[in-house]
Structures are given as C-alpha cells and as structure tokens.
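Methods — Computational structure assignment.
A single polypeptide chain was analysed. Its primary sequence is given first, followed by the predicted tertiary structure written as structure tokens.
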Amino acid sequence: MTETAYVYILKCSDGTLYTGWTNDLEKRLAAHNAGTASKYTHSKRPVEMLWHEPCGSKAEALKREAEIKKLSRSEKLKLIFKK
C-alpha cells in the first residue's frame, strides 16, 4: 500500500506563504513550528496550515508542489479560499 502524499500551503507569521509536500500533515506542521522543517519557515514561526490537497504519490505531490510554487500570491490565495 502506498502512503498518501499531500501538497500544502502554510501561512507564516510574517504573512508570507510557504508551499511544501509531506506524507504526514500533522507531523510536518509540528516540525515547521518546531523550526526543524525548513530554513524558510524557521524564522517565520508560528506557521498555520491554510490548505492541503491529497496526491496519489510522492511524484504527483512533487509535481503539484512545483506547479503551485509558480503561481502568484493572488493565485495561491484563490486556490486556498475557493469554495
């Protein structure tokens, strides 16, 4: 059985957005808030999970992460807050 991979967007304490991927959303969020998940979020804690999307595999999550990172901030916000 393959683990579900997720792509996610965090809101950092300075208002910036961070996009990443993981197999465990809760563990990854805790790592970001502990300052051990990425250099970018280390100094921008606390972070808040705004959005996540399940992907079929790590490869799909990495592809989706790359797509999202190319979006503008306003496009990311539309993705996050679409109803």
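Note: The CA atoms of residues 68 and 75 lie 9 Å apart.
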